[in-house]
Amino acid sequence: MLEDERLNKPEMYYQSGDLIITGIVSQFYIFSDEITFERHPSDERFNDYLMLLQSYQHIVALVFAVKEINDNPQLLSNITLGFHIYNSYFSASWTYHASMQLLSAHGKCIPNFKCDTQYNPVAVIGGPSFDVGVHMAANLCIYKIPQLTYGATPKINDVTETVFFHRMFPNENHQCRGILQLLLFFSWTWIGVICSQNDETGERFVNVILPLFSLNGICFDFIVRFPNLSFSSGIINMSKEVNKGNQVIMESTANVFILHGDVKNIIMLTTLLYMFELNMPVKLSGQVWIMLAQMDFSSVGHQSRWKANFIDGSLSFAIHSQELLGFQKFLQMRNPVADSEDGFIRDVWQYAFKCLFPNSETDGQDMELCTGYEKPETLSEPLFDPNISGNSYSIYNAVYALAHALHAMHSSQVKHRPMVGGSNWKLLNHHPWQVHQYLRRVSFNNSVNEVVYFDQNGEIGAGFDIINWIVFPNQSFLKVKIGRIDPQAAPDKVFNICEDSIVWSKSFNQAVPLSTCNDNCHLGYRKTKKEGEQFCCYDCLPCPEGKISNEKGEFLIAGILSQIYIFSNPISFTMHPSEELLDQTVILTQNYQHILALLFAINEINENPLILPNVTLGLNIFNSHFSPSWTYLASLELLSTQDRSVPNYKCDGRDNTIAVIGGPEAEIGFHMATILSNYKIPQFTYGSAPAINDQNQGAFFHWMFPDGSYQYRGIFQLLQHFQWTWVGVLFQDDDNGNKFVQDVLPVFSQSGICFDFIERFPAIAFYCDFDQLVNETVATLKVIMGATANVLVLHSEIQGLMTLRMLLQFSEYEGLPTKTKVWIMTAPMDFTSVNIQRLWNIDFLHGAMSFAVHSNEVLGFQKFIQNQSPTSRKQDGFIQIFWEQTFNCLFPDSKTDKQFEKNCTGEEQLETLPASVFEIGMTVHSYGIYNAAYALAHAFHAMQLSEFKHRRQGKQKLLNQQLWQVTSWTDECKRAHNVCGFMGSQSQSSALKVWWNSSFHQPQSACPIARDGVSFNNSAGETVSFNQKGELVAGFDVINWITFINESFLRVKVGRIDLKAPPAKVLLLQDDDIVWPSSFNQTRPLSLCNDNCRSGYRRKKKEGKQFCCYDCIPCPEGKISNKKDMDDCILCHGGQYPNNDRDLCLPKDISFLSYEEPLGMSTSIFALIFSSITVSVLGIFIKHKDTPIVKANNIDLTYTLLISLLFSFLCVFLFIGQPEKLTCLLRQPAFGIIFSMAVSCILAKTITVVLAFMATKPGSSMRKWVGKGLAISIVLCCFMIQATICTVWLATSPPFPDSDMHSMAKEIILECNEGSATMFYYVLGFMGLLAFVSFTVAFLAKKLPDSFNEAKFITFSMLVFCSVWLSFVPTYLSTKGKYMVAVEIFSILASSAGLLGCIFSPKCYIIVVRPDLNSKAQLIRIKH
Hints:
This protein is of the alpha/beta class. 36% of the residues lie in helices and 16% in strands. The longest helix is centred in the last third of the chain and has 35 residues, at 1221-1255. The radius of gyration is 55 Å and the shape is flat.
């Protein structure tokens, strides 16, 4: 027995280091006395204790991890980890005491008084009990110290405390789900439960988890609480509780017990079973114990003599772990001599080896002395297991997680703040709370290469191992991993178990134990529930005469169909409600085929030996009357005893309804789901898909209807294909109809479809509202017939055509004009009628289009229908009223009030009826029912095969399956569903369901059995399967309706919607096979707001109208429209121009001034003529160069001027012809330089004349300027200036060939682009400046003597020159194309000819005509 001094020092093991990790472990279990306040509290703190030998491994795991980290240079280099290990004794007071020690100075338990810093802990690792973590958090969370718990997971309700908590225990919900899947896997439905008493986790398991097990078909024989021993004085009370538990266990018929608790409870269980064997004369028989991962096997010293046979063949869950390399060797090498600083090892050694150390304080004089070198590996497993346990593995990972978090914190510090002093760390200056953010994000691979991380809840991201316990005769045991729960695996692989590896208890002869309330019912017997017992307990009664059963009874498929349409009166509360339920009913004869389709499918399945052999399917059909109240009533009937509508009270076992098929209206499916989904009953709807917004309800729903978006896409593409942009819409006022109007029609509108009207179908809620129905019908009919749209979209349910016929029939009664329309009907619609409508015309259907779920003819169905008669199907409650309404006759025992002229024989032939009354061929809705029945059969067949695969018994287990399991086999693995596989009722606590949905069933989890999804080929060769939403994977057919004069009709498939095609091309249509209404003369109808705008016009929206309504206006000049109904006209390309009708672009002609056209030819001739004249004048002057008139005016300037004029005439040819690169480059510079030369010569001549007369005056200083030098200087200077301008022009922006496509409407002008208009005008400007100066000087010199004066001629010539070029500028800018070139050529020719004529014609006249005047004497005489 230890003394008080030992217990006053709770830290039993200390190792110094730079950073301290604290461990609060439980090596001893203390039994304290109650504090009586009669003596000092320290004397009452304990009375007795137990040593838990296995728990010593937890301490060794912490030491081993710290040693590995300190030896690892890659982790926390230059930092040494130390540890303080305290003993909590599984006691709240001692846990608080240890926590307070952390916050106090070493050796002084004074919180907040901590003057030493060498013992500051960075984190605390505590466990393995639930209580240890809770009590730790009470103190340490206030100081924000990180805490990592192992073993049982504490429930921390304070959000502020959970921030500082990390659990080395995975999400417990995965373990709970694993237990449930284990029970279901072995069909253990009758179990016992033992849990902790007055324990929060135990109460949570009993009150929250077990009810959910019960919802899944698990029953509990007993639920026993563990007695808790807190005080020594409570042993007597504990013994009483043990005796009660013994009695319950002894009387239990269950073979499987679930043990819920933590590490100390396994000790109590051992004690309980040991006491049981002592008190009872018979040895305890074998049971299968299922132990939780929190229960790490431990024993105390005196229990080593007790037998551990009770755990032989048991199963337990354990935190997933791997054997650590070197751990066993490290454990085996420890001894009290080498590890003397270990304050735990001496006590462990003494208890394990039953010896005493010389200075031991423990009483035991008869015991041998310990040497300290005993071998731990010689101990048996009940005392000490050398293999690492789940809790030890968690401690090891916790230490490493802290080390990696500290390492990451240091790395972050180094990254953001350079270190001072080389590798000196700053970690010691950090506060513990700073570790949290790094600990949350820590993720690493441990030494066995497993990833360690925490999830968002602070729980370790790991799974669980499933352990099989094998006990040997020497009471040692072996723990074998036979399965695993891996939350990170694929949903269908989360739960894995190897059944062949399990060793069961010897009392079961190595066979899978059975744990059921009673034996299964044999063939020929059926189950009936035991009154006052749980639902797992039943009696087996023989089948009545004429019936058989399979192993557990027959299966029924329920049908909630609509054969009769009911008109109710409103309940006025003036009479009994049953008398007000209905007033008038009408029979929809076509819908009877739905019942026959279900019957046909059931018969085929029962006769097929390859599907559900030895299993007979039956059916139970209810009439919904298209009424919510009747649908609810039918649903409740399924949940009640036959003929008694009392939900949840179903005491007869005859009605094994496994699924419900309902339709054909969406509302029926919706109302079915409201009730049946609460009971997880699989439901199939045909006809149309109800809008199920509740995800829980949708999980048990399968639609024999494809994704409706493809149908709407097909309708839109059909309208686009035929260019029907102006349509009317009639819709049924229900959820699907309103969704179509609100969600789908706006999309149509955005894509160019306009709606002439959008009207609701007239609806009648009560029979007394018939007058209101008539008014609504007339109003709707006026809208339809007044519409200009020729195409109407009809969105309704199956009875839509019946309503439409009534609507159109009113036009005859009201005398309203009728118009032929093309009806486009949605897939849920089918031809239905009532008896009164059989004589009504159906011509309105001729040429109509409809969509239908893809179907094929089923072989043998027509023959099956033809063989039906009331005499052969007396058990059919529908056929007699159907027969009477169809053939207008009455049976002798008829309950119908109507009077028909003839009696029914029952031998009438259904094939003689027109299609408008009853169709022999299978309709689309019947095809859906047929496939639904086969889908259920194949799902059951797959489930049956799974049973045979996973169970060794050869008998069927199908009836053990719950209804929800059918969903898992018909569903194509809707894994996101969060209520996978639990049956329940509305009475269950919503809190339980919320917890189960939110945490217990994560989206990635798998159902208890694999959800392979049903997929099969039906008898028509079509593949039937469902998508992830539970919708049928199928396309749609496009149907063209053709009517005949005998009121029959034919449906012709003219297209389909291909789901695999691109979204824009899902509609495939055969236009040539379509038959249009007769009034359209077999041509495609048009449905537009107005006529199309033809080519050459564009659309203009009409104010206040929809965008499909518009006016047509001509395209503006320069634009065309080459299609109908263009919103805007388009410009022709640069080389084209519009024709007169503005519907076509014509190529433009190429235009330039060519030699072939008259303008080019005439300018060329004039240039040649003037060039010839210039050459002649030059020749005359050369020939008469010695005559006075030639000499008198500077002969060199005359020659230069004539040559310049010659080149001026010749440069015209640079402007004629197609512009080329060279001609464009030379054209304007040559013209500018040549003309500048000519004008500069004239200027020089004028200045020379003026200076000559000025020099004749006595004493004139002008004589020095007279001579050839001045004239040459003037010419050269002007030439150089113009040449410089042209050089700069050519160097910077030279002219280049270009085309002008826009100036002329019908021509492309080939021209020379000047490159720089500025430089071009600089050339003209300089030339104009010279001309202006020359004109001014000549004008001033015009009064000089005539004989030697050319000033008058120069003045006149420059006047002509300036006039030509002044008029050139505006004319050039105002013309386009080749006429611009012609203007420049004309200016060149006119100005050059003006100079030539005005200056040289008088001289040539004298030289040639009057040579007598060309003499010096004559000139002198003329002067005088």
